[in-house]
Write a structure and sequence with these properties.
Elements (H helix, E strand, L loop, with lengths): L1 H13 L4 H25 L6 H4 L3 H29 L6 H26 L18 H17 L1 H4 L3 H19 L1
């Protein structure tokens, strides 16, 4: 409901914007959506029981598939808004493709980057087992996350339906490889 409400509010507000401001508003909405989705997905790693997730390949596959489906459901209103903006603002179709791609890639990417960052595990009382430290490795991983967000936004920066289709196809293929 919150995603649908915020997407509807954005759509209603965006209808009154001129094209120059619409470019900035759409870009801000996409990056905010990307990082909110990433933060929500990466945060689940700290609560994961390692003995359970590492003991079964099937668990990982089902968990990634469920997280991907939930991500798509959560951002479906935003995809609809970007598609609805297309007649008035054609680059928004690239954002719709980028958002679908993000939902397909982020569940796996968030866990991989979370392991690289060495996200602290949460213990029984929601207390971290290890405090996360500031390091060069963390800075590099955050820059990588920003680079992935920017790379996924390429169909918006360079509007092309072919590029959008290729991006969604590559994202779907990488998701299928990860859960295969």
């Amino acid at each position: 409901p919150m995603s649908a409400g915020s997407a509807f509010a954005f759509y209603m507000a965006a209808r009154s914007l001129d094209p120059a401001r619409l470019i900035a508003a759409n870009a801000f909405a996409y990056y905010f959506l990307f990082f909110t989705l990433y933060a929500g997905l990466a945060g689940t790693l700290s609560r994961e029981r390692l003995w359970l997730s590492l003991s079964s390949d099937e668990y990982f596959k089902y968990r990634m598939t469920a997280r991907t489906i939930l991500s798509l459901i959560a951002i479906a209103p935003w995809i609809a808004v970007f598609i609805a903006e297309y007649p008035r603002f054609p680059p928004a179709l690239g954002l719709a493709a980028s958002t679908v791609s993000a939902a397909l890639i982020l569940p796996v990417f968030s866990w991989i980057s979370g392991v690289f960052i060495e996200m602290p595990k949460m213990k029984d009382l929601d207390l971290p087992a290890l405090i996360q430290k500031f390091s060069i490795k963390n800075i590099v991983s955050y820059i990588t996350i920003l680079a992935v967000a920017s790379a996924l936004a390429t169909p918006y920066i360079i509007p092309s339906w072919r590029l959008s289709a290729i991006e969604v196809a590559v994202a779907a293929a990488s998701f299928l490889l990860a859960v295969r």
